Amino acid sequence: MIIAIDGPAASGKGTLAKRLAARFGLHHLDTGLLYRAVARDVRQRGGVLEDASAASDAARALDPATLNDPGLRGPGAAEAASMVARIAEVRVALREFQRSFARQPPGAVLDGRDIGTVVCPDADIKIYVTATPQVRARRRYLEMQSRGEPATYEGVLADIGRRDERDAGRDASPMRPADDAFLLDTSNLDIEAAFDTAVGAILGKAGQRGPV
Ligand code: CDP
Question: Of the residues 4, 98, 137, 183, which has the maximum number of CB atoms within 10 A of its CB?
Fold first, then answer.
């Protein structure tokens, strides 16, 4: 079974994807880490993020063993990721890794921006997670505060707005819900309620086809 979870920054898709993977006994890939790692590697090699050939070289050479680098977690890394994520060759270079990850038995949950539309268009279920920019900024702000990272709510809101615009406005695999995605608006849902709704949608879909 392949579950595709997409949505904008801080929509709650990462937490949801992790919990769904545990619930259904599937592998989980946070695909944002791939773009974050490409940006890190471009800089480590002394390159600039706007250089398409440096970024695609870094994407082709990416070592998946380096994805648990704690340096990939921060907001600076997310901003840098969205710069290299605009480059079509970078996306192509990362596509096969994502697809073979998804094909591992017994299946996988992948979260990102283009999983349901481009990476796994045949996923068994696609969920597009959204929330208002204000709710997402508040969540991310509280998350950063709890990690002791300096942040202001206004700053986080501006970062999220800029990144949403870049992700939805790019030509290469723009962020958007697949036509057959289940839309999950978590503006008024806590993680438990979002999880329960997603599980209900997955079981409902599986019920139409046979047991999960
Ligand atoms: O956790 P958050 O949603 O803030 O970030 P993320 O999922 O790690 O993604 C960081 C950036 O990587 C996004 O703003 C996108 O530009 C890019 N990305 C993408 O283009 N495609 C994906 N499948 C995943 C991430």
Answer: 4
